[in-house]
Amino acid sequence: MDVIKTLGWRKFCIIYENNDGLVRTQDILKNRTWQISLRQLPFSDDYRPMLKEAKSSGVTHVVLDVERKNIFQVLKQAQQIGMMTSYHNYFITSLDLHTVDLEDFRHGGTNITSLRLVDPDNPLVQRVIQDWVFGELRYGRAVEPTQTTTLQTEVALMYDAVQLFAKALDDLDRPRHIDVTPLECDGDFTWVHGNSLINYMKWVQVNGLTGLIKFDTEGFRRDVTLDIVELSKEGLERVGRWDPHTGANYTRTYSEVQQGIVDSLQNKTLVITSVLAAPYTMLRETSEQMTGNDRYEGFCVDLIAEISNILGFNFSIKIADDGQHGKFDAKLNRWNGMIGELLSQKADLAIGDLTITYEREQEVDFTMPWMNLGITILYRKPTKQPPNLFSFLSPLSLDVWLYMATAYLGVSLLLFVLARLSPYEWIASSFSCRDQEDRTLENQYSLINSLWFTMGSLLQQGTEQQPKAMSTRIVAGIWWFFTLIMISSYTANLAAFLTVERMESPIESAEDLAKQTKIKYGSLYGGSTWNFFSTSKLPTYQRMFSFMESQNPSVYTKSNEEGVKRVQKSDGQYAYMMESSSIEYITERYCDLTQVGGPLDSKSYGIALPPGQMLRPLTWFYSL
Ligand code: ASP
């Protein structure tokens, strides 16, 4: 468990042989943080059907709990069906892997890890093997070549047991003589020295072939340390140590591990999966016939070309068969798009406008993000209002115009009445001058004249009539002041109306979209934007998602390009939810489109790698 944790495995398959294997791996099975599938080794010698089935269900990490004698066959048959590539990782529980001939698997790049109790480089082990080989040859017995270099764990344990027993007997025999008396196995008598011998063996510490031999009071081995070994081109190499107190500790440094992987990448050709989306991966527009990677250009193509230069690998770009980014299809129980291609080992890397999401992160590894973005709305730019015949009325609202008309009539009437009442507004008629007796009086403010006077002053023109009485002058003064304010405001507003172009957009944010149903809105189907709405817990986005789901014809699109075209053609009846980085690119190119509102979330694009260790230097490269 410690080693699997240190290796960072999250999803793997346990291949076991018999019930003992299940018992041995029960603690692993109980760990809920791992996704584990179980497969039993068939009783026949043909393991290929089981391995093929494991391969097709996307198994890349295997815990192999089979007997030593079967390990080679299982690995060999896995190799035959293509399950021994650099994407495959094996952890072999047998402590005897060092006694298996792994020559055939050294160069495939498969990550094989195991543990061992006996260190073949230990001088004590070498001396014991030499003595034994020498002894066997002396008696004319044949020795297998693998047996001349290393020992099986069981043999080493047996050797250590005998050594310990002999030492204990010898030590006890020194101070007093120990007799050995014949005893019956099922008799009542026990050997008098038996207890002392056992207690002494529990207490004494000896260095054996399996390390320091030490027991607890119950008689179980204590403080056992195991070597963690990995298969490299040179054979099994010790890469760390496990002990019960500190767990698994790798002796290689992080940069040594990374360097090892960088070395393994040299001159390898990696298949890069991508989707066509401007400006990340695009078909090169040229009149010449292009082949290979030259067919593509874009930000991601440049990015991977730079990385490959630095890390020294070659690459070949392929567009994902279904052109999708990656969505889990519950019915088919598999991922589609770029993620699916990584999981089915059709590609080694996925690069494009591929968003790092929680669900995808569970299945594949992502590098550090290379671009940050958020979901925003792509919409048609607000259009200019056509000129209106009555636009001179626009500076003031209808209410103001109505109040003004009322005030105009009211003031005219007031003036008329006051002029009637005041004696100073009555003057002698010019026609009656000759006859003093027959003087007729005239009033200049007839109803028509009053209306004319107020109209003249409202339009800042003036009239012939001048008020003479105090009351009419006060009314006229107040009216003039009122018209001064009104005309100034009107002139100022009119100037502003004439200079500022009135652009009106019916939507300013996602909330505006959610509130209405006239303007339809949608997103790329199955991408992270769609996923954001489908999994959101916020009522506004949930409402938007149910609206999108209920629309017929569908508001979803197969590509962002299709979405952009739909917004352009819909004449303001369709808004498209898209990632801000792509929207910025689109709005720079299509002047009739714009981004509406701020980002709804915050996320990033990253390069996806198949789960496993092989391409980790990319992650490391980004963290520099
Ligand atoms: N970049 C997104 C993805 O990785 C696509 C989208 O939803 O706009 O799925």
TrEMBL record:
Q: Where is this site: Crucial to convey clamshell closure to channel opening?
A: I507
Q: Which UniProt keywords apply?
A: Cell membrane, Glycoprotein, Ion channel, Ion transport, Ligand-gated ion channel, Membrane, Postsynaptic cell membrane, Receptor, Signal, Synapse, Transmembrane, Transmembrane helix, Transport
**Compartmental location:** Postsynaptic cell membrane
Q: Which ranges carry the Ionotropic glutamate receptor L-glutamate and glycine-binding domain?
A: 279-344
Tell me the Gene3D superfamilies matching this sequence. Answer: 1.10.287.70, 3.40.50.2300, Periplasmic binding protein-like II
Q: Name one GO molecular function term.
A: glutamate-gated receptor activity
SUPFAM superfamilies for this protein: Periplasmic binding protein-like I, Periplasmic binding protein-like II
Its GO CC terms? ionotropic glutamate receptor complex; postsynaptic membrane
InterPro entries the UniProt entry points to: ANF_lig-bd_rcpt (IPR001828), Glu/Gly-bd (IPR019594), Iono_Glu_rcpt_met (IPR001508), Ionotropic_Glu_rcpt (IPR015683), Iontro_rcpt_C (IPR001320), Peripla_BP_I (IPR028082)
* Protein name per Swiss-Prot or TrEMBL: Glutamate receptor 1
